[in-house]
Amino acid sequence: MAASSPQLIIDGVSRIFAARRVLSDVSLTVAPGDRIGLIGENGAGKSTLLGLAAGQSEPDAGSVTRPPRTALLRQEPEFSSDATVGRVLDAALAEVRAIEEEFDAAAVALADGSPASSARFSRALDDAERAEVWTAEARRATVVAALGLDGLERSRLVTDVSGGQRSRLALAAVLIGRPDALLLDEPSNHLDDAAVAFLEEHLRSWPGPVLFASHDRAFLDEVATGLVDLDPAAAAHTDGAVRRTRAHATGAVSEAQTTTVFGGSFTEYLDYKSAERDRWERRFADEQSELARLRRTADVTARTIAPGRGPRDNDRFIHKFKGANQDRAIARRVHNAEMRLAALEAEQVRKPPAWLEFAGIPSGSHGLTEGLLVHARSVRVGTRLALENFSIAADERLLVTGANGAGKSTLLGLLAGAIAADGGHVDRRRGLRVGVLEQDVRFARAEQSVRELYETTLGEARAAAVPLGELGLVAPRDLDRPVGVLSIGQQRRVALALVIARPPHLFLLDEPTNHLSLALATDLEAALGTYPGAVVIASHDRWLRRRWEGATLELRDGRPVIPVGL
Q: Could you give the 3-state DSSP secondary structure of residue 122?
């Protein structure tokens, strides 16, 4: 069992899964009041590191020291099959109630006047103040309302609520429990603007250590006091030197082993990382050029005694006296070149690893370049959606926004044909092919490899015409791994590949940046701008929304705030 500390200390932690090293010698200290954001490619080990920090698994090397009450929010919360909403919210206060009971008991024990009782009371008071036991009920009510859960019946089974509601319920339980340290995996997923604003304010005033992984670029800018990039490329240095402390104009960077902590904002980090990569690539190119020159010097000079012609008769006499000196000079040049070559080979920076770059959306959407794809008239879906006159054109670019429960996912389901209207008419273009990137990815056969899933879903001909590896969504090392062992972000990459490998006429994306790496989210947004068909996105992502150049539809209580298509 790890020792307790006010700080979260991760010391030289490594983790290996199925002979693949996910984390290597990671060291990090998160002090009270620090809010450190973990970033990196999907599969870089963010969720693994959070699980190790929480003590839910043990590292293969290294150690973790954590505060006494450390809570973890998973990307995909786990609840028992019989858990109800009320039971989860009550359980969230179980530790707080135990702390309050110990405080009451310690207060009674003070009557004996012993030093032990006094020490016990002091400890109980500290614990009670950290857990804020006297405001627990008010805190629960505030958190439940702020996360949009006050409308859920307490007797309702958690298995019967939506995936977004489950995630918000798990987040509520963590915040209500008021732990000493917070570990959060994609905490802003499924949160609307009001809920994100509440969470940001809550975390900025959190007294203990906070370590979180997030794809949400605006959230990182607002909350993080520091960033840790777990990508291998981020841990390397352009000068090939031993780890050191480096100052940056917008923040301090301190490094320990393979971990880099950046003290600026996420926006500043993007500029910093780009410049660092450029320096690394230039340094590598310069060193490779110098290595090539030294190898030529060592090889060619060693085989060259007198360049050009052979010696004349008159030269033979001179060479008798000068030849030995010339040979010694050449030998010295060769030796010096070999020494410099050996030193540079030992100290050279490694080649910058190739980025897993999204190659864009392939061609393949046939026809349907004009006219309407879908036209909905006087449509009702229960109390969730009401559209009087709504249409999607062949080249539509539409961003659907609104609070949780506003009807965004219902609208996408209606457009996809997965949800039937209770009234009205929905006309779809003949031959219309619709593709959906859903919020929650589920694969029926988790044991199937990524390559096999791709081929069976698309068919051999299409899979051969659009090779999965060329889409830039799945790393070569992951192609033959079972899809079920991939991270949630990697699985969503696979789901995205299955859609775009045969581009649909109408592409529907439900919270497309959820779980995706920051780099891929940016690339995907750019690619959608030139998509060869219609695009409809439902998203809370403020970064995406601020940069969106197409039409926007805001829903409120299932109805357009400003009707479109009239």
A: helix
CA 195 to CA 199: how far, in whole Å?
A: 6
- Tokens coding 249: 């104009």
Q: In what order do the strands lie in the sheet with 20-30?
A: 20-30, 8-17, 61-65
Fold of 8-92+148-273: Rossmann fold (3.40.50)
How far apart (Å, rounded) are the C-alpha atoms in residues 128 and 96? 8
Q: What are phi and psi of 157, to 5 degrees?
A: -70, 140
**Least confident interval from 243-247, 348-352, 377-381, 388-392:** 243-247
b (16+ CB within 10 A) / e for 414-442: bbbeebebeebebebbeebbbbbbbbbbe
- The residue type of 238 is T
221: pLDDT strictly greater than 80: yes
**Phi/psi at 73 (5° precision):** -100, 120
pLDDT in tens, 7-47: 999 999 999 887 678 888 899 999 999 999 998 877 788 89
How many Å apart are CA 251 and CA 240, to the nearest integer? 22
Q: How far is Cα 337 from Cα 562, in angstroms, rounded to an integer?
A: 74
In single-letter form, the type of residue at position 492 comes to R
495 exposure class (CB count in 10 Å sphere: 0-12, 13-18, 19+)? buried
Find the mean pLDDT for residues 237-255.
34
CA distance 195 to 168: 9
372-560 — its CATH code?
A: 3.40.50.300
Q: Which two tokens stand for residue 297?
A: 């010097």
Distance of alpha carbon 561 from alpha carbon 554, whole angstroms: 6
Number of C-beta neighbours around residue 508 at 10 A? 27
> pLDDT category, 247, cuts 50, 70, 90?
very low
Angle at 358 between CA 355 and CA 359, to 5 degrees: 110
For the stretch 440-482, pLDDT in tens is 788 888 899 999 999 999 998 988 988 888 888 888 888 999 9
Strand 559-560's sheet: what is its strand order?
Answer: 434-437, 506-510, 534-538, 397-401, 551-556, 559-560
Task: Return the DSSP state at 12.
Answer: E
pLDDT of residue 340: 77
> pTM for the full model?
0.69
Burial class (CB in 10 A: 0-12, 13-18, 19+), 178: buried
Q: How far is CA 365 from CA 78, 86, 431, in A?
A: 39, 48, 12
Q: In whole angstroms, give the CA distance from residue 23 to residue 46.
A: 9
pLDDT at 96: 94
* 360: confidence class by pLDDT, cuts 50, 70, 90: low
Q: pLDDT for 497-532, tens place per residue?
A: 898 888 889 999 998 888 777 777 777 777 777 788
- Given a contact cutoff of 8 angstroms between Cβ atoms, the answer to whether 131 and 99 are in contact is yes
CB 106 within 8 A of CB 161: no
Task: Characterize the bridge pairing of strands 20-30 and 8-17.
Answer: antiparallel
